[in-house]
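Tutorial handout. Part one gives the primary structure; part two gives the three-dimensional structure as tokens.
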Amino acid sequence: MGEQIAVYALLLLAFVFGSVYHFRIRKQCIHSVRLTKPRILISIITPFIFCIIAYAGGNLWYYYVLSLAAAVFIISGVVGEGIHEKGIYYGRIGLRIRLAKWEDIKDIKIDINKNKLQSFKLKTTTIYPNQYYNPEDINEIKKFIER
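Part two.
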């Protein structure tokens, strides 16, 4: 039983600290990603999926606490991306958001018509972040990148 409590506590701490990290990034970004329909859908469905998993796992209150912490972690990763003074924060759903520093980024492609950051080259890899921004922000982003 003691091992289960230790694993539970470690997972809960990891999810809480990860969520705080992601939300802090969103707050610090000059331009945060726009919440598109897929991002909103993921944010709505994720807590339900994790609650179903908690119910199937044993229907105990601490399973629900852990599942909601995991859902908040996933949601924070979905909304935490954006343009920062240091570079571009990007990530995959549910994983830790990564920073691509401006000095490492080459060949940024922006679609002004769709208000989308299409891609950027990071060293030898091309990243397709699938980030949409508000229409008024996209021109500012383009000017910021060109400096």
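Part three, for discussion. The mean pLDDT is 88. Strands lie at 31-32, 82-83, 87-90, 98-101, 105-111, 116-122, 125-127, 131-132.
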